[in-house]
Description:
By secondary structure, this protein is an alpha/beta fold. It has nine helices and nine strands. The strands form two sheets. The chain has a seven-stranded parallel beta sheet, sandwiched between helices. The model has no long low-confidence stretch (mean pLDDT 94).
Amino acid sequence: xxxxxxxxxxxxxxxxxxxxRACAEALAAAGxxxxxxxxxxxxxxxxxxxxxGTFRRIDVGDxxxxxxxxxxxxxxxxxxxxxxxxxxVLQRTLPPGELSWxxxxxxxxxxxxxxxxxxxxxxxxxxxxxxxSIVVIASVAGMRSGPLHSYGPAKxxxxxxxxxxxxxxGRRGVRVNAVAPGFTETPAxxxxxxxxxxEAGALAxxxxxxxxxxxxxxxxxxTFLASDLASAITGVTLPVDAGYLVATPWSAYGGVRGDAPxx
Length: 263
């Protein structure tokens, strides 16, 4: 079995770095014509050049900008067969009394509104053509409690959105799925380590596998769900979290067992 995206156009939002960049690289390696979309022009153009694709500047929180970008892609590159929504921002772990409405709104605008804007614009066109695959990037933060009072609810909304759109467009040949990363090695996470706001050992220790997720591992799941190998899969959320979701309940029992034989 192989993944073949030959003659297909894939649009990756947030493709300039991190998970988005890994998805762009994986889809290009599988033969897709990749369009990297991001607000960071320099980084986005560099990724596009590296994967043999094209770049398009986009602000996913602006629905008019999304419509214009999609128009340009379909005019200049071709009908979009695959959409991957990776654009996102991080949120500080502040209590409600300290989390400003400005920060709360920004996170919602980029994650939930931005994902919906891209899906609505591209998915409607896909449905009109009778084919297409969308993979949205959610998070395990949207599946469990945590101190991310805007990011977590936004990601939970994305999970539900994937289910809603899968039902909306399934009879018209469009599949919609979500991937929910755990703590993933990205430049954003590295900045958290550098500033001391995150601790690598603690994050790795919270998973069953005892490590962080690599961006290319997220990209592998995305590429699978976007491919014909997943042709009967729609409306699902696939956690790629090194076992974070299964390990966290073990904290009530002292944590997951160690890696020594017999432990």
